[in-house]
Amino acid sequence: MAYEKEQQIALQAAAAAAQLCEKVRAEKLSNAIEKPDESPVTIADYGSQAMICRVLAEAFPDDPIVGEEDATLLQKPDMAACLAQVTEMVSEYVPGTTSEKIIEWVGRGKGESAQRFWTLDPIDGTKGYVRGDQYAIALALIEDGEVKVGVVGSPAMPVDFANPEAGRGVFFVAVRGEGAKMYAMDLKPIRDLKVNDASKKADFRLVQSVEKAHGTPTEQEAAAKAVGITADPFCMDSLGKYGAIARGEADLYLRLPSGKYLNRKENIWDHAAGVVVLEEAGGKVSDRHGNPLDFTQGSTLAKNTGIVASNGVLHDDIIQALEASAAAAV
Ligand code: AMP
Ligand code: MG
Predict the structure, then answer these.
(1) CA distances (Å), 176 to each of 143, 159, 180, 197, in order?
(2) 204 and 173 belong to one structural domain
(3) DSSP secondary structure of 49-65
């Protein structure tokens, strides 16, 4: 099987980070600190990035990692208590961890993209994490601009939203050309992932962010309606949304920049792992104009505008509907 070592290491690293994130939340240490860009970060974001970068550095020493967090803030004197907490938390999983090691591992996640590199969001949906809702750990391997391996860890996501008794905590894993699979928190395989086909059309559903400011709910819901979606939208934080489409609980996810965020470019770590999971489950992902996502532009999708992720069946229709609504707005 292709990329077997990469997939195994990525899954193990994400699983270890998921344990840490769940422990930090259970111990009520998941309060947010505001970063200079006003986005939130917690000790679990740093702990997760440190643990994953440590494992990747050991297994694939030549691979750069383009991650969300940066060790600069963590080294500031007023962050000393936070650094000490991160060090203590990671030490429970990696005995002998020092604050110097934390800085080194987190810092390793600020690499440059290359012909082959990893991209990491140690906690995607930090606002959901702090609120007690969904969040994800996202790790992907990109080679020649194509996402080859993706792991989306969703520790708080039910195995089946319709049957919450069936347990909670899943990993969505895909290797390009080899399909996508869902694993349980103990890493036992649950099942292959497959999007809904046209026979389920009457029940197709939009999935969108809980945080209204991260999208344009009115425009998203109007576009969904234009392609015949009648069900109420399903709201969840993080790129677990890609997993929800991959396993048939949702069918369409739109991220359409507008207003003061019109020129915002998406970060690669917020999408890469979800893209390969969804594509390997039979879905489709593009930007709002139907162009493929370009992962060769550094840490952002600088050449793309917005994101359209779908079960594939309604992809062309939704792109047409978005183009028509953009033309009508001019
Ligand atoms: P979600 O859980 O889907 O709301 O997405 C969380 C992600 O939203 C974070 O990783 C942020 O990078 C991203 N984000 C923050 N602000 C915005 C914004 N104004 N527009 C789109 N995405 C945003
Ligand atoms: Mg994120």
Answers:
(1) 11, 23, 9, 21
(2) no
(3) HHHHHHHHHHH-TT--E
211 in contact with ligand 1, CB cutoff 6 A? yes
For 265, the token pair is 């470019």
Does this model's pTM top 0.90?
A: yes
Last residue in a domain, options 192, 208, 236: 192
Instruction: Tell whether 177 and 32 lie within a shared domain.
Output: yes
Ligand 1 pocket member 264 (CB < 6 A): yes
Q: How far apart are CA 243 and CA 79, in angstroms?
A: 34
- Write the CATH number for 68: 3.30.540.10
Instruction: Give the structural domain span for 317.
Output: 198-329
**Probe target for ligand 1 pocket from 214, 219, 261, with the most ligand atoms within 8 Å of CB:** 214
Q: Determine which residue's CA is closest to atom 19 belonging to ligand 1.
A: 214
Q: What is the mean pLDDT of each run of 10 residues along the chain (330 residues)?
A: 96 98 94 92 98 98 97 95 97 98 98 98 98 98 98 98 93 98 97 98 97 92 96 97 98 92 94 99 98 98 98 98 86
Same domain? For 182 and 46 the reply is yes
In short, whether 68's Cβ falls inside 6 Å of ligand 1 is: no
